[in-house]
Design brief:
- The strands form two sheets. A nine-stranded mixed sheet has the order 14-15-16-13-9-12-11-10-17.
- It is globular and about 50 Å long.
- It is an alpha/beta fold.
- The relative contact order is 0.16.
- The protein folds into two domains: about 5-120, Roll (2,3-Dihydroxybiphenyl 1,2-Dioxygenase, domain 1), CATH 3.10.180; about 150-305, Roll (2,3-Dihydroxybiphenyl 1,2-Dioxygenase, domain 1).
- A hairpin with a 6-residue loop joins strand 14 (about 240-245) and strand 15.
- The protein is built from six helices and 17 strands.
- The longest helix is centred in the N-terminal third of the chain and has 14 residues, at about 75-90.
- The structure holds fe (ii) ion.
- Fe (ii) ion binds next to strand 9 and strand 13.
- Belongs to the extradiol ring-cleavage dioxygenase family.
- Its EC number is 1.13.11.2.
- It comes from Halopseudomonas laoshanensis.
- It is an enzyme of class 1 (oxidoreductase).
Length: about 300
């Protein structure tokens, strides 16, 4: 049952070289730099997003994800969800408004996988970038690179998937859209949605908490192919694709930012409503579930994590 969590609101990634990262996310992926803060963090957005930013880059010694934040529909909902997290047994940290530029208070918690998540209800809205909200044109002609349209989801590796699903379902109102089960019935991958999207966050079983990828949406398959061309033109490190996922059936390509964080851009894919039964893949079909055409996992998919 939905609880008032609307969508992925932001992800903060650690990068080794902030200038190289900004160039990658703006010139190659087509995100827009919106702000910087006194700590040196850089705030970016994809053009269709109404909030001021969805990606925060922080210079650090090690790559990876600091946290992923979900936007809730109101401050009252945020209070209710905070109480739910505490009742579930989560340790909760209250982060005051303004810690992230133009963002209201955030409620930080650690999921049983070990990843930092947070909830917030208020962020400055700057509207879609490059188009007005009245009689809007189809797209801004100034867009560069892959012309990513929105931050879509993260895939995270970590332990305790069952407890994490319980938390996201019972406290935050997510549904299980797709899963991978072993022959013994153990769930080793779970794709969770709080919307009609195929997934808003996904988890794969792994002994320690790691970041697999942050994904951004493109309009169509032609744009995925165009992204592949741009990856070659810029000598960007590619992981796999363009191809199709079996899970969610999205059309996808994976590549790496200059710090080694994996990115995905994708188009299409399935949709989900709360009355849909979860789609189940058997673990022996995992290759086809991840890479529908190759039907085998490449070693990097399982082992290159930040
Ligand atoms: Fe993905």
């Amino acid at each position: 049952m939905r609880k008032g969590v609307m969508r992925p609101g932001h992800v903060q990634l650690r990068v080794l070289d902030i200038d190289a990262a900004v160039k990658h996310y703006t010139e190659l992926m087509g995100l827009i730099e919106m702000d910087r803060d006194p700590q040196g963090r850089v705030y970016l957005k994809a053009w269709t997003e109404v909030d001021k930013y969805s990606l925060v880059l922080r210079a650090a010694e090690e790559p990876g994800m600091d946290f992923m934040g979900f936007k809730c529909i109101s401050e009252e909902v945020l209070d209710n969800l905070r109480a739910g997290l505490v009742a579930f047994g989560c340790e909760v940290e209250d982060i005051p408004a303004g810690d992230l530029q133009d963002c209201g208070r955030r409620v930080r918690f650690v999921a049983p996988t070990g990843h930092n998540f947070e909830l917030f209800a208020s962020k400055k809205q700057t509207g879609k970038w490059g188009v007005n909200n009245r009689n809007p044109e189809a797209w801004p002609r100034e867009l560069g690179g892959m012309r990513a349209t929105r931050f879509d989801h993260c895939l995270l590796y970590g332990p305790n998937l069952a407890e994490t699903y319980e938390l996201f379902r019972d406290v935050l109102g997510f549904d299980l859209a797709e899963q991978v089960l072993t022959p013994e019935g153990k769930r080793v991958a779970q794709f969770l949605t709080v919307s009609t999207k195929a997934h808003d966050v996904a988890f794969i079983e792994h002994p320690e908490p790691k970041f697999h990828h942050a994904s951004f949406y493109l309009d169509n398959w032609t744009d995925v192919l165009r992204a592949a061309d741009l990856i070659s033109m810029t000598d960007t490190s590619i992981d796999i694709g363009p191809t199709r996922h079996g899970l969610t059936h999205g059309q996808t390509i994976y590549f790496f930012d200059p710090s080694g964080n994996r990115n995905e851009v994708f188009a299409g894919g399935d949709y989900h409503y709360p009355d849909h039964e979860p789609v189940t893949w058997d673990a022996e079909s995992l290759g086809k579930a991840i890479f529908y055409h190759d039907r085998v996992l490449n070693e990097r998919f399982l082992t290159v994590l930040t």
